[in-house]
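Just curious: can you write whichever protein you like plus the matching structure tokens?

***
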Amino acid sequence: MGSLHDVVENTNVVCPPNPLDPEEFRRQGHMIVDFIADYYHNVDKFPVLSQVSPGYLRECLPDSAPNHAEPIEAILQDVRNHIVPGITHWQSPNYFAYFPSSGSIAGFMGEMLSVGFNVVGFNWMSSPAATELETIVMDWLGKMLNLPKPFLFSGGGGGVLQGTTCEAILCTVTAARDKVLTKIGRDRIGDLVVYCSDQTHCALKKAAQIAGIHPDNIRALRTRRSDAFGLCPETLRSALADDVSEGLVPLYLCATVGTTSSTAVDPLRGLCEVAAEHDIWVHVDAAYAGSACICPEFRHFIDGVEGADSFSFNAHKWFFTTLDCCCLWVKEPQHLVNALSTNPEYLRNKATESKKVVDYKDWQIALSRRFRSLKLWMVLRSYGVANLRNFIRSHVNMAELFEELVTKDERFEVVVPRNFAMVCFRLLPPLGGLSARDCGLETANAITKRLLDSVNATGKVYVTHAVVGGVYLIRFAVGASLTEERHVRSAWMVVQEQAEALLAEFNVHPVMQEQTDAVLTAAVHG
């Protein structure tokens, strides 16, 4: 404990400069913009996948926060020296991993405006422009997707900007849960069942568990190669019949347009027809592929969406809008409001009581919310529908090019059909006179994993993997805003170079197959 004298001395300090001084903001703001512009100018020169080891940053930074202010110049120097090496560069033109997180000048500038205003738009009164712009932008975007009118505000539905698909699914699962439990009694929550395919994103499982659905009542239904790994409606019908016969209550189906593993597409019309037989909520998760559906040639992938209750896609994936920005539409917003609203005295106001406004706090999990619509509005206005479609088409064209390159090389195989801008491929093992496609699956998987690791170790390209139908494959997802055809061709050269080295290592005679299998299996396990 310090003495009273110590306390007096410690509080006798000069008043610091105002933390929101406009001129200092202008000075530092220009420095940050220049820093980021230089970063993008040179981003292709960095290793795409960060090469640091776990815990590296603690060795670079002090154990405690500074007691006195430090200049922005010193802070930016530390960003350059210590933070940038620890970044995996999602905006690099050589980034082909996971799904894209595409950015744009308009998206960045909209984010700057949003952060600069720093409003907390939980209800209409807290910032009318934030609410009203969101309702307008969501109707604009819904029309671009040619969503059925019941999903739009102009048709009795409506859209809301969530942070991520995980939030969108949690909100809709919760709405579906309360809708059903109001009818059958809350004591039957243990009887509720949700459905998806074995290709559905793990966000559904997390959301269902948070919403109180028993883990044993989450049905991940099997998909097949013959259906291109989309969920067969008859498989759903059979599962529903089994659960109903056991006295369980079907609640919710999550259908996917563009799965994470392979961009598979669930047949919406057939699934919605089956779901309607049991009056279950259907949510369409188009987190990645929804962006492409603004193009008329891809719109057919969401045919049947008129039978769904909700639809979402992530504008921060492939729509040139910075993270976070998930677009969710619902046909009957009142179900969200019923499940998620709270109305404490300190939030009561005339606008809300008039029933003429939207209070978005009742459409989401959190109370506070960001002014996300500003950046989406700027993207739509700055580029226009025609340019946005052409940006997406350019990525699809580059993916087609990569697919063609893979197909022409007999050492490789495209594993599943390409639907959008992602190619799933594998390296076929060297088996001498035997057919590579007839080799053991474990051997094939092991050599493809080795290829993935060696490609990423170069730092020139970053790709990720999935396992679909037991097959280990490499996902090559085109979508970074800075990517051009030359980057795709360069990436393919890296893949070929690493494959040649790997195949030379295992270039053996068929009689040595057992030894090859053993080496490759050891490789995949560690």
Summary: The chain has a mean pLDDT of 91. Residues 128-370 form a domain with the Aspartate Aminotransferase; domain 2 fold (CATH 3.40.640.10). The two ends are 53 Å apart (CA to CA). The chain has three domains: 3-86, 128-370, 392-525.
